[in-house]
Amino acid sequence: MSSAGTWQGRVAALTGAAIALQLVTAVGYATLHRETGHAAASLRSATTAPAPTPAVVASLLQRRSRAVLGHDRAAFLATVDPSAQAFRAGQQTLFDNLAKVPLAAWRESLADTRAAAAADDGWTARLTLTYRLRGFDSRDVAYTQYLTFERRGDTGWVVSGDGSAHGLRDDPQIWDGPDLTVIKGRYSLVLAEGGSAVGDGSPAGDGSAAGDGTGAGDGTGAAGGAETRTADLRDIARRLDTGVGLVSKVVGDHWSRRVVALAPATEQQAEELAGDVRNLGDIAALATVSGGGGDPDGGADRVVISPTAFGRLNGLGRHVVLTHELVHVAMGGARDSRTPMWLVEGLADYVGYKDSGVSTRAAGRELAGLISSGGLPSSPPGRSAFTGSGERLSAAYEEAWLACRMIAERYGEGRLVRLYRTAEAEPGSAGDPRIEDRALRAVLGVDSSRFAAQWRAYLRKELT
User: Fold this and answer.
1) What is the SS3 assignment for 23?
2) Vertex 253, ends 248 and 256: CA angle to 5°?
């Protein structure tokens, strides 16, 4: 898939005591700043609503921004129309959610001085929201939002709504929903929407089942559901904290060693946060770039957790999935469109499975089945192999994993990571086979043909 799309990856998801389900992790090669909805909303003009000056709007937005950073609820709500009761209630929830978030920066500003919509219900503007999470984001994250402004005789210009009445949608944020929960670990930050616990509502131990994935509670009521939800989120943060150290042991410390995970309450909300991914039904987690606005070096890395698929995993499955996604964060996988996909996903699986105790035949069962029925593949999977589904997609990830494991065993982990970095730095476009060949020659001293022969022999030894 092109750099504007999303490539899916597979991790063997362990449920109960056996490998009973193949779930998907993914790395998203797209930012969460989506322009399609903005382009569809054409600029409109009307004379029915008075228009505020840019200076008036800027002043109002500055007041809102200062209030968010200063935790001044009264000052923030003073910018909101008191007669717009439903919108005001939503703004109260937004402020209360943001008060829990460690914000280093927050700024609302006009993106266009022209009206995105103007009608009897006010003057609607397209805004740019930029923020930065303290201790986690090294650069601003930028999104688009819409606010409607009206002039009230007693209060002057106020915010009276968003753009939804005109079909204008904000870029979705984790704090848009009710009851945001914020869990801060040593290296991790988990931002979660309210809802039932992931899986069965209990933190999955390393050998326990994680429930049936329905999100059903245990019958203890709302208070018990909130407690188990929080415990589950703390478990995610703990696994991410552990994973940071595991990933660094393999790839080194030359990355932020910080991760922000978004844990929405529903699969639909996860899909909205993940942007271009349309169906997360079988995707347990997704590493992506948030709020880059199309800039490959912009935005911030995020891991989006899909509650349905993630909820089917037991503790070992969650460890593999989250460690896999951390490798993408550490190696910049969500920003990388040139490195061979078998390296991108194979290294992530290699680190995820390392020292997990999962046998080769268990983790490679789809590939073993295809080999027994159709023979060995000719070479490591190309880019197109990672855009399918089902058994063949799973086999592609198993092929990639075993290619990287073979390199680590034969040449050492250091050369495996160096091969990735060398391929990443090679000139060329996505899918160019010369990138792989040059990197293999430079780091391992073999060409693509010789490497494929080594890999085929390794598959034969491990799976037949």
Assistant:
1) strand
2) 100
